[in-house]
Amino acid sequence: MMSSAFLLIAGGGPFSSEAAMNLETDSPVAGASVAINNYYAGSLNPEEELAQAFSSEEMLARAATSERAGEVPVVKAAGKSAYDNVAISRVSNYVNVRSEANTTSAVVGKIYNNCAATILSTVDGEGGKWYQIQSGNVKGYIKAQYFITGAEAESIARQVGTPMARVASTSTLRLREKPSLDSRTLDLLSPDAEYVVIGEEGDFAKISVDNDLVGYVFKDYIDVRVEFNKAVSTQEEQQKAAEAAKLKKEAEDAIKKMEEAKKEAAKQTAEAPKQTTKAPAATKAPETAYTGTIEANPNSTTKAPEPTKAPETTKAPETTKAASGNKGPGGGSPGSNGPGGGSSEVVSATRSAVVAYAKQFLGNPYVYGGTSLTNGADCSGFTQGVYAHFGITTGRSSRDQAAKGREISVSSAQPGDLLFYASGNYINHVAMYIGGGQVIHSSTPATGITISPSNYRTPCKAVTFLD
To answer: Which residues form the SH3b domain (predicted)?
Structure first.
């Protein structure tokens, strides 16, 4: 019911260690060194005032500690706090934003608990003091009693704002186990994805890639924005409801098409013996096709031990490039056999139905150990729940699902197949490939069920339950 916005925080100056540049990225870049724990409230209007306040504080800190202090222009912050005009809502659920400072005027939007707003003015209205506020696309009036301001707002903002990092101007960035350039590389991060920042240590930001992988990245190679919940307009609420209805309808239609494809396949199978009786000479064709299938299966079985090639899992850079290039997920050919040996039409319809059904739950919460698609699930609880709707048993954990599905190459993954991610040789996260180089997964408590690039971290394995 809430929407989010952000303030981009970027710093100046190239990273001074050429050796470290070669270690951390594929190419040298100029980036941001951000004091993440000192961010100001973002995504508010006017954003420029808050950005300037942050920049002033950051420049002062860097001038005092950096060897390049002479390169940093020192600008003293203004006397007033950046939070003087910032308010954080404090309500049990939500409060209406009105067109005028009274409860009989038109409702122009809603603001929920812990949303950020800019106070444009203070007026005397019905029953006392009201604020005219701007939050997101909503501008209107709310009773002052529903907001906290000043130092208290600053303290709350640091708790409810979510810093998000994106790799800046380089193809990949090393995620390290510890905040040190000598620490082991856990994975390579993609510039196409955003990651939750959960802290900092020295020159490193602590990143939650998903709830199953946490590590450190060098701060000069990331851009950080701070995301806050904001008010939603009446129109935005209507659009959100319409989008939810659209996704539900798409799922219903896709499932209906799948059922129709199954009925048609069953009808053709039932009619096949009659056709064979009328044309005995044609009876050899099914035998040939069937024999071919038998010959293909042992070959695919003998290739099953390929997962034991642990070095492939650890070759994160190679896998990352494959995922983003022609050999990424979806780059191969779809299987010709459907669930339980169905036709290619059944397989295609089932894949579409599985993905459409999964998308209905976008935005629902991540809950560790959870299996509810609406009230909260973890990564494997989400994929298990989606497949269970179609009568497919996957197992509960990501490792169970990786073992029970038929292994395919990452490059041949098709919509509805599962991609797995590992730390070292230990699989700890699963996502569903939805096509177009994207996955849907239950990621973190901050993001919930979301869509990410398939190479937001390095996929180590893919399986299918659909052919």
So the answer is: 84-151
